[in-house]
Structure formats: C-alpha cells, structure tokens
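Field notebook, page 408. I keep forgetting to write these up properly, so this time I am using the form the group agreed on. The chain and the ligand, pyridoxal-5'-phosphate, are recorded exactly as supplied. Prediction of the bound pose follows.
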Amino acid sequence: MTTLDLAFARSQFPAFAEPSLAGQAFFENAGGSYACRQVIDRLGEYYRRLKVQPYYAYPASQEAGEWMDASHVRLAEYLNVGVDEVHFGPSTSQNSYVLAQALRKLLKPGDEVIVTNQDHEANNGVWRRLATDGAVLRQWAVDPDSGMLDPGALDGLINERTRVLAFSQCSNIVAHINPVAAITAKARAAGVITMVDSVAYAPHGLPDVTALGADILLFSLYKTFGPHQGAMVVRQALLERLGNEAHYFNGAYTRKRLVPAGPDHAQIAAARGVAEYFDALDAHHGGGTAAGRPQRVRQLLREAELPLLARVLDYLSKRKDVRLLGPADASVRAATISFVPLKKTPADLVPALARHGIMAAAGHFYAVRLLEALGVDPARGALRLSFLHYTSAQDIDQLIAALDKVLG
Ligand SMILES: Cc1ncc(COP(=O)(O)O)c(C=O)c1O
C-alpha cells in the first residue's frame, strides 16, 4: 500500500498557498473542488496563446484543436473508454437534459423508465418528464431510515417494457456507494439502458466505466479538480442508436451530436490538466505501467480519504444531538457526510462554523426527493461536510473542534 504524500498533493493546488484562504479548512468539495495547478495553467495558457477558433490550418488554431483532442484522449484513458465515447458539455444537468431529448426518441408509449428518489435532480427530473410522452415511470425507492437503495428491489421493477434505469454511483447526501457493476449487469441482462450519475463519486477516483458496465456515465469536472464542464461517457453501441441533438449538418461528428450548446474550447482544452495532475501524483508515488495508472491513482485517493472519513463518521455517530444521514461505515461510503442537527438549524451552523475557519454548506443540495424520503424538511435541509484526498488530518481536527463548539 502506498501512502499519499499530502504535502505533494497540496502543492499541486494553488488554493492551498493562497493567503486569503489560509487557516480555513475546506469542507464543501461536493459543491466544487479546488482546481489543480495543471488545469489552471492550461486554462491560462489557452486564453493567452490559443484563444482562436480551433481546427483550422494555422498554427494557433491547430494547436488549440490538438489540446482539445488531448483532453478526450487523456480522460478516456482514466475512464477506460474509447476516445470518441467522451463528451464535454456545459454541466451535468445540461448533459442529462440533452440525453433525455435523445433518448425520448427511442421510447414508445408504455415503455418503462426507472428512476430513484436518491439521485440529485439532474439525473431524475429529466427522466420523469419522459412520462409526458407516454413512458411509464417506476420509482426505485430508498430505505427511509438509511437512504440506501436495495439492488434486490430491482427484480420487482424491471420487466420486459423497461428501457431505461437512472441511478447514481453515490448520492451527494448519503454517499453510500451503490454496487454499480451488479446493478448494470442486472439491467443489461434485461436490455435496459443504464444512466449512472457519478458526479458525487468521481472526485474520489475517476471510475473505470467499462468495469462498471454503464451505458452512460456523467460527472462534473469542476468538482473533480477541473474546469466548469460536465463530462459524459456514452458507450459507442448506444451512441449509434441516439440521434443528433446538434445542428442538422453536424450529425456526422460524434463529438458534436450531444452538445447543441457548442463546445467551450478553452475549458475542454484545460480538462486534460485533471489527467496530468493524476499522472504527476502517480509518478511522485513510484508510478508503474501506464495501463495500471488509473487504478493506482484510484487506490491512492481512496486510502487517503478512508481514515479521515472514519474519524468524522465515528465522531458524528456518537453525538446524540445530530442525525447522521446514510451509513456510519466508512468502507461503504464516499467522503461526503450530511447530518441534521437536532438542536440547531443547518443554516445557522454554516456561519457559526465559518467563524472557526470551516467552509461548509447547508441545504437540500438539489436532492429534495431524497430528503423528503428520509423525513427531512428540504426547506431546512442538512449540513454537509465533503472532503477529498487533499484534506489533512489537521483539517479534520479543526472541523471536530469547531463542531464541538457550534453544536453545543
Ligand atoms: C450528484 C450530483 N449530480 C449532478 C449534479 C449536477 O451537476 P452540474 O452542476 O454539473 O449540473 C450535482 C451538482 O451538485 C451533483 O451533486
């Protein structure tokens, strides 16, 4: 097992050297992570040197196009998919909206779509709206105490009319890691298209999409050390069945079909920086074969987060004045922890924590249906603490000391 060199990891993020952020511990990473140096440098250089229309035959334009292509290539490596299976769009919400328009054309009245009440609304409302065209909706509901989904319940939901199943790798509130590969296997056996929201999981380790078996997988680069873009993988076999959602004359370009907004050239070019950060992390920790790199990086991130996650879960599950949402076992969840304070309001805790140098947030985080299912008033919401591999043990000390003070 390789232990993360935290000083090295933090040295790759300019935010940790920023005087205005000194002394403040960042626990709102599920809202948006810090950006790594590689991304910031590429974005700056692109704007300085390559801010021209890409893919024409003059040097700056050619290079701009090469930078964009490189982002497809490098992220495809980490996601273990084909280069043309990676698509960039303005955000995950926008990407799922476009995907819903594309999938709508594959459905016939009476076809069934399964959604959960665990997901962020981005992987939820767009599919529910398909019912207006005659699709039948089935809800895969969470356990109202734990917020967890039971894969066994799918057997009673999937039938010969089921066409689509949308769920998350993990929720942005309860953070239980769903057994994605087992779920997609069940769906595939029934000919069901799977749509996996990995937004809340990807920052903890870019998923191997082939191993997960998802037809579509979505995540947001701005929560994964990168620029403000949504990334989506659409597997080739499905892509060929989907129509063109972009200008009619662009249908022949697979990368354009699902991006009617038009590409944000600079941000797509800078997305390569996320892979370059992971490369640097891997090389610093001894490296190895290129083929083994994504898995080594995934493991490095996970092992750095696990002990910190266990500490916070342990602390919160012992307090009598909070309701922890989701499981208390670190091994089955990602480093996103939400709780409902029983004596204070979540909204009041945010400025109170800020006075102790803790950056955190409260609300429903667009998972309104999940909070309702858990019996939590979405208007009050929950307090969420989310962290990543670059979080230090000192950050956790500071957090726990602050929670001791603000919870009373
Ligand atoms: C789990 C999850 N899915 C989807 C989204 C939507 O992502 P975007 O902001 O890129 O539309 C978010 C954003 O917070 C999220 O947390």
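OBSERVATIONS:
- The CA atoms of residues 15 and 21 lie 7 Å apart.
- The chain has a mean pLDDT of 97.
FOLLOW-UP: compare against the apo run.
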